[in-house]
Specification:
With 135 residues, this protein is mostly helical. It folds into two domains: 57 residues, no CATH class; 64 residues, no CATH class. 56% of the residues lie in helices and 0% in strands. It has seven helices and no strands. 24% of the residues are buried.
């Protein structure tokens, strides 16, 4: 038998196929097709892309995968309850940079600003961690 048939599939518990893994990596993580092909052990970028496309069509998902901008991701993360500090740490930027990027995206796309009310504990936690973000 060919060695490729016995290749372990990454994250088999999360995704049933490599096509599903490729689709969700592209949508959720904004990863390039080259990185997806390498991580999921595809022989080419086209193989990863076509497997993701077959998965999307079979599951009736949007194709091509829409790539969110950083501002849209920051806005959505804050809207879903994350603090600006957590968003900044997740994306490798300061909380104020994340907030300004999200504000610019909201202004451009005519979305509500602020996306939600700030929780009382967020004010004090920013003061506590502010020294980490000074340049």
């Amino acid at each position: 038998m060919d060695n490729d048939q016995h290749r372990p599939r990454p994250n088999k518990t999360t995704w049933q196929t490599r096509g599903a893994a490729a689709y969700w990596m592209r949508q959720r993580c904004r990863v390039s097709w080259q990185i997806i092909a390498t991580r999921l052990e595809y022989k080419s970028i086209e193989g990863a892309r076509s497997a993701a496309k077959r998965y999307a069509i079979r599951e009736k998902l949007k194709w091509p995968v829409l790539i969110l901008s950083r501002g849209a991701m920051f806005y959505a993360a804050y809207h879903s309850g994350e603090s600006w500090i957590d968003i900044g740490l997740d994306f490798g930027c300061s909380p104020s940079a994340a907030q300004n990027t999200a504000r610019g995206w909201a202004r451009t796309h005519k979305k509500r600003w602020p996306p939600r009310k700030r929780k009382p504990w967020e004010n004090s936690s920013y003061r506590r961690y502010k020294h980490k973000y000074k340049r």
